[in-house]
Amino acid sequence: MNQSQASEAVLSPHELEAALRDIGARRYHNLHPFHRRLHGGECTRDEVRAWALNRYCYQAAIPIKDATVLTRMPTADLRREWRRRIVDHDGSAPGDGGIARWLRLTEGLGLDRDYVESMRGALPATRFAVDAYVRFCAEKTLLEAIASSLTELFSPQIIGERLSGMLAHYDFVSADTMAYFTARPPQAAQDSAFALAYVLEHARTAERQQACLAALTFKTDVLWVQLDALWHAYVEGHLPPGAWRPDEREGLR
Q1: Residue spans per domain, the chain
Q2: Domain 3-235 is found in CATH 1.20.910.10
Q3: Measured on CA atoms in the order 180, 123, 138, 194, is the torsion positive or negative?
Q4: How far apart are CA 229 and CA 27, in angstroms?
Q5: What range(s) does the Thiaminase-2/PQQC domain occupy (predicted)?
Q6: What's the start-to-end Cα distance of the chain, in Å?
Q7: What is the DSSP string of the chain?
Q8: 46-93, pLDDT tens digit by residue?
Q9: Helices 206-230 and 45-70: crossing angle, nearest 10°?
Q10: Which of 99, 113, 168, 243 would suit a FRET pair with 119, their CA atoms being 20 to 30 Å apart?
Q11: Rounded Cα–Cα distance for residues 133 and 61 (Å)
């Protein structure tokens, strides 16, 4: 069967799930050299700071993306399920939720909270990638938006590597500052189980199935390119104008 014929074939739910998981096996950013450098203890403290600073842009955009998806859900059952994601990230009170836990990490690394939240020191490629993801979820079909979230199928592995590797190799992080990563795996497992079931139920035509596969591929690209940018800027030293500079005091507490 050639590629054209494969794209026209309707996959069984089992085949579709296998195809989605294969994208993660080949394209998820746990394979990126920066990820391996970070978790293997090879990053400098400033490289870890740059990663946490830039990753905040993505973390802060997740509830915005999810709110966009929520507005397009036609039933109360779907909206109740999806709005839990927003609460997980925003919290139900100040100081609660995933974004607040991420700010504990950046503060623990010595970054100024206001500077992090302003995102003015983030890399241009980071901002472009995050904005592209939010726009994708606003402009594509509801099915594609949900399918793009399926990177959460693979996140427990990378979170486990991140938590154990960073605690083992860096004396400037602690279990408290890494609290985001201890809280997130059960949430990601619940979120991905719902999203996968939704995709398998609603992607019944070849066209819809290919759209879901493309959506997940796009999302892996969004995550990958952020690490490309970090590597280029902070490992190879090609800092673009306006990006946080480790040799200056701006952004540090």
Answers
A1: 3-235
A2: yes
A3: negative
A4: 17
A5: 18-228
A6: 59
A7: --HHHHHHSPPPHHHHHHHHHHHHHHH-GGGSHHHHHHHTT-S-HHHHHHHHHHHHHHHHHHHHHHHHHHTT--SHHHHHHHHHHHHHHH-SSTT-SHHHHHHHHHHHTTB-HHHHHHTTTS-HHHHHHHHHHHHHHHHS-HHHHHHHGGGGGTHHHHHHHHHHHHHHH-TT--TTTTHHHHHHHHHHHHHHHHHHHHHHHH--SHHHHHHHHHHHHHHHHHHHHHHHHHIIIIIS--PPTTS--TTS-TTB-
A8: 999 999 999 999 999 999 999 999 999 999 999 999 999 999 999 999
A9: 150
A10: 168
A11: 9
pTM above 0.90, yes or no: yes
Cβ atoms of 233 and 124 closer than 8 Å: no
Residue 6 has pLDDT above 80, yes or no: no
- Cβ contact 52:109 at 8 Å: yes
Q: For the chain, how big is the Rg over CA atoms in Å? A: 19
pLDDT reported for residue 110: 97
Nearest to 110 by CA among 230, 217, 250: 250
- Amino acid letter, 174: S
Owner of token pair 């909206």: 79
| Residue 2 reports pLDDT greater than 50 | no
CA separation for the pair 243, 226 (Å, rounded): 14
CA distance 12 to 96: 41
Structure confidence at residue 157 as a pLDDT band (50, 70, 90): confident
pLDDT given at position 77 = 95
